[in-house]
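Deliverable D4.2, example record:
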Amino acid sequence: MKILGIDPGIGRTGYALLEQTGNQIVMKECGCITTTIGDAEYHRLLEIKNDLTALIKKMRPDAVCIESLFFAANAKTAMSVGQARGVILVTAAEHKLKIIEVTPLQVKISATGYGKADKRQVQTMIGKLLKLKKIPKPDDAADACAIAWAGIGR
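Output generated by the structure prediction step:
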């Protein structure tokens, strides 16, 4: 099974493709979709859709795992992330992919066994679980690895 983990964002959307064969889980690719600061928001959302479509066609995942919305102190940031998340969900649905939604708590518990783990602890454990030589950069790509990991077996 191939699962595409996605950490939604308007400026940077992290992605990671994990492949599970039996009990072995391997990271095949990770990175970020980056949009142009200063462009109209609808152009940035279209850029996310187009780049994600290209990734889906190239990677051919069986499922997409995306982090569910969290409550942010900044309403503007929450709105932008929500809009990016909507574009991602629609794009996955257009490609008839299974969609798995996980909460930030589920991601932390899946990676570390501890629901109050901080970002660094989650990233360190994902690096160990996937036997990576170094933690993926930027953080959005590493977070996408953890999101994909949380979606395995769901």
